[in-house]
Amino acid sequence: MFFPVLAPGTEVTATSHQEGVVGIVFTTGATAELALRNALSAAGEIRVRMKDDDADS
Description:
Blueprint: E1 2-4, E2 23-25, H1 32-44
Antiparallel strand pairs: 1-2
């Protein structure tokens, strides 16, 4: 599950601490290792688009 923390269009003023978080990934698994793998897999699918990104990307 992905829970967004910032609304679309919110300006991110820092990325070096907690204020740069755009969302939280929650996962489960039969073991802690599987839950971690699920979290890493889900996190790899998250895309943050920046203001100057091309629309075709």
